[in-house]
Amino acid sequence: MNRRRAGRILTAVLIAALAVPLMYGMVQLPAPGHADAPAHTNVSAGYIERGAELGGSENLVTGVLLNFRALDTFGEVLVIFTAWLAVAAVAGTASNAERDPVPPSPVVDYVIRLLGPFIAIFALFVIVNGHVLPGGGFQGGVLLGAMLILLSLVMDAETVARAVSARSWIWLRATGVLVFAMVAVMGLPLAGYLFGLPDEPGLRQVLTVALELGIGIGGGAVLAGLFFAIAGADRS
Amino acid sequence: MIDAAHALLVCFLVIAGAAFFFIGTLGLLRFPDFYTRIHAVTKCDALGAGLVLLGLAIWRGPDGEGVRILALIALLLISSPTAGHALARAAFRTGLKPWTRNDGERDGEIPGDASERD
Amino acid sequence: MTGSVTAKYREMRVNATDLFDLVLLALLLTCAIGIARLKDLAACAILFSAYSFILCLVWAHRGAPDVAMTEAAVGAGITTVLFLVVISRVGRREK
Amino acid sequence: MSAVHRWVQLSTALFVFWLVLSMPLDLSDLLWGLPAAVAAGGLAGAFLWREASPGIGARRVAGLVFYTFDLVRQIVPAALQVARVVLDPALPLDPKMIVHRTPLDDDLERVTLANTITLTPGTHCVDLDGDRVTVHCLSPSFAASLIDGSLDKRISTSIGGVERDE
């Protein structure tokens, strides 16, 4: 009892000791959105001024992600793929979950079947327009994955998982990594360095959209794969 | 004149939507059990948000954004009652008993903390 | 004359924006404390979904629609589903 | 309804949705949208609607739009009634479960019925199993239009009886 109380006091003291310098630092931060803040006066001003031209897409975020920091993004795509590999290795061999005894409601079934294709179209729209509008490969990919998970709620996960053969699923999940690696290597002849995009605007746009599509399809397939593996519907 | 009527209509719709949200939230807090509460939540979600969005669509006029907001309303009118139905059905199929007036009187409980405890 | 009025209006709007952010942050904090304290994992998952959704509003309000979209889809949508699937397989009480 | 007919129908709906998303229109939107809609429509027809079609044609879309306006007219008085219940300090609730047998026999009609019940303040569709609709209502008076069958009739005049599957 006494020890517990001492522990609590110690925790409180430690938290206070941590909080005071943090708060002191926070008071000295410039106001959010202030024009003179260091974050707005150095590199980001350059991004905003010339990013659209140099990055090759009207949406600055996409330009930064796919061009200036392509290596980081490649790492991210690899991490997503690796996450699926890890989950599949741990959970993929687990026995199948017991069947849900209650069939889905006919209302839910009908509405999800009706809306599913529209969600897919919206996901594709987000992916393809990632260089102009908010969104892009990652966001659209998540929407695709969400659609597959939604469908497997009404259609039985195994049916959805079997719509594509196990081998094709693996290729689909690797699409992001493969397309990114391909574009990166193509940078050598086209721009003179790895991960470079060519200067010619038409070609650059085609490559940007290809990257977005690859990331989107790969991301969606990985997310759906995570769900199938955890729900025990994965036989690959 | 037209502008004023336009703005007035938009204001009316948005305020009506907000009133819907208010009443729905009040219902959520006052109603006694899961089934009656889900009544409040579903209607709030679909009709309150629908009215606010309709106001915004009229505010934008017939350009791309306005039409997209109308599509959003259609989606809301389809998906929100379906979600409410799915929740209520899950509770019904797993055997949650609805609160009735007689229960409340017999147990001497006031509406607001009957059933739904586990 | 009109200039000063618009400037004043702009000032008011900035304050209202900050207030909105503060309300959202307070809600975030409430959710976070709830997640840390609850023992029922399913309730935690739902609360975490609410947390992500509020964070999504913060992103959107701070002018980062790309991040907001990801947060809504991943945080509020898919992560919740994955949590719930896992919970349905391992049991919902924290030991 | 043949598979090709279904494909065309689904793809048209998806293409219109794509156009709404990408307004103001641009040539590149059409170039992306058309193949995307055709592919998604084909996949939906092959995987989701293989046994039955959604059963929504042009006339039913018009019927649904008309029905939405009709729905708003039904909702307003019910909403006021529920508002009165919620604001009443005594909270005069008398919740009941009601089982209703509907004469509607088409998927879309039944889904419309269930969602109408859920959207109308005071009633909430709890289960739909064949023609048995289980409804939870805040008090029996809210379910009057359901019990006397006028709701079923309104739905079948707006969207029923046309474009059945063969």
Description:
The complex is a heterotetramer of chains A (236), B (118), C (95) and D (166). With 236 residues, chain A is an all-alpha fold. Chain A has helices at 2-28, 38-41, 43-55, 60-68, 70-91, 106-128, 137-155, 157-162, 166-191, 201-231. Chain A has one domain (58-231). Chain A has 10 helices and no strands. The longest helix of chain A has 31 residues, at 201-231. The relative contact order of chain A is 0.13. Chain B has one domain (2-106). Chain B has 4 helices and no strands. The model of chain D is unreliable at 162-166 (pLDDT under 50). Chain D has 6 helices and 3 strands; from the N terminus they run αααβαββαα. The radius of gyration of chain D is 20 Å and the shape is elongated. By secondary structure, chain D is mostly helical. The chains are: A mainly alpha (236), B mainly alpha (118), C mainly alpha (95), D mainly alpha (166).
Give the total of domains of chain B.
Answer: 1
Shape of chain A: globular
Number of strands of chain A: 0
**Secondary structure tally: strands of chain B:** 0
Q: Termini of chain B, distance in Å?
A: 57 Å
Multimeric state: heterotetramer
What is the residue-averaged pLDDT of chain A? Answer: 81
Order of helices and strands of chain B: HHHH
List low-pLDDT spans of chain B. 106-118
How far apart are the termini of chain A?
A: 53 Å
Q: What does the main sheet of chain B amount to?
A: none
Order of helices and strands of chain A: HHHHHHHHHH
Tally of structural domains of chain A: 1
Compose a concise summary of this entry:
The complex is a heterotetramer of chains A (236), B (118), C (95) and D (166). Chain A is mainly alpha-helical. Helices cover 76% and strands 0% of the residues of chain A.
List keywords for this structure.
heterotetramer; C: about 100 residues; mainly alpha; 3 helices; elongated; D: about 170 residues; 6 helices; about 10% strand; disordered C terminus
Task: Write the SSE topology.
The complex is a heterotetramer of chains A (236), B (118), C (95) and D (166).
Chain A: H1 2-28, H2 38-41, H3 43-55, H4 60-68, H5 70-91, H6 106-128, H7 137-155, H8 157-162, H9 166-191, H10 201-231
Helix pairs in contact in A: 3-4, 4-5, 5-9, 5-10, 6-7, 7-10, 9-10
Chain C: H1 2-37, H2 41-61, H3 65-90
Helix pairs in contact in C: 1-2, 2-3
Chain D: H1 3-22, H2 27-47, H3 58-87, E1 96-101, H4 107-119, E2 123-129, E3 132-137, H5 144-147, H6 150-159
Antiparallel strand pairs in D: 1-3, 2-3
Helix pairs in contact in D: 1-2, 3-6
